[in-house]
Amino acid sequence: MDKQSCQSSGRCLQAAPEVFAWDADRLAHALPQAREWPEARLVAIARDCPAMAIVLVDDAGSEVDPYA
Ligand code: SF4
Hints:
Blueprint: H1 11-15, E1 20-22, E2 28-30, H2 39-48, E3 56-57, E4 63-64
The structure holds iron/sulfur cluster.
Iron/sulfur cluster binds near residues 9, 10, 12, 50 and 53.
């Protein structure tokens, strides 16, 4: 998660409140259980983020481009 880019739209929390939460500054962050979620669902949520603030990383630690 690129918290500095988060615009606090709340879209990710609406889509997956089990996976995303607000911090004290009302910036979204991903919870550890995000690792258990299907990649396709996380990709869809990342694409819906107006700030492109959701950074997806695969098991090898490489960044996943949600628009690829
Ligand atoms: S969808 Fe993006 S901009 Fe909106 S709260 Fe989540 S991370 Fe922040």
